[in-house]
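Supplementary Methods, section 5.1.

A reviewer requested that the exact input to the structure prediction be made available. We therefore reproduce it here, unchanged from the version used in the analyses.
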Amino acid sequence: MGCARYTVIVAEDEELLLNNLIQKIQSTDLNFEVVGKAQTGAQALDLVEELSPDLIISDIRMPVIDGITFLETVYNKYPYIKTIIISGFSDFEYAKRAIKIQVSEYLLKPIDPKELYNSLLNIKNKIELERSVYSDIFDESLSRSTPEQIAKALKDHITCNYNQDININLIANSMNFCASYLTKIFSQQFEITPSKYIISLRVSKAKNLLSHNQELSIKQIGELIGYYDQGYFSRIFKKYTGMSPFEFRENVSGSIGNFSDSDK
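The structure derived from this sequence is encoded token-by-token as follows.
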């Protein structure tokens, strides 16, 4: 069940540059292992879903889905995954979008090995710092518990911290597990993946806030439950309820009004 210490997916449409970058990453002594490579944003997104890496390194210009759009999608679904953008040109608009999705590093081609090394070192330090947050709750002693007990511990943690970034990779690593194994035992126990359980809690809380806290804007409610991009919050909410947050609030307000009128 052991995993590589820091797993990486690399996305670059030019095969020669892709392989060269992979070689540079794996020649460092920082324990980063490339577990997947892609030449389109769509391929990269599929790999992220399958492999749940610690880090993504992506070119900006790629076919099917460009690098920024790909990383925006990743950020909205997996905000804990670290990201590096590489580009053959300096573009302020891309840089602004990269800042919005909290890209860890922005490197220009041709990639300087020293700059790459420093970027990877910075990300390694961030991961180690975040890992310490989970060490008191999820450690090797818990890994000796039954799968049911481990799944319950994770569920309890998610329930208390659903509006925060919950890093399933680091939680799994704290117990010397793969994220896929932790997801599997959670799903077997509760018939839902950890990520979908987080969404269900957030949507449930959003419904409550929309119904009973009219003074809060939709953006504020999204932020309170862990979604800082209002557009993404609205899309997630509609996917799970069939209505946008605005439509849900209007529907609830109308129902309350009708009930009050009939009760007079």
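The chain has three domains: 6-132, 135-191, 196-262. These observations are discussed further in the main text.
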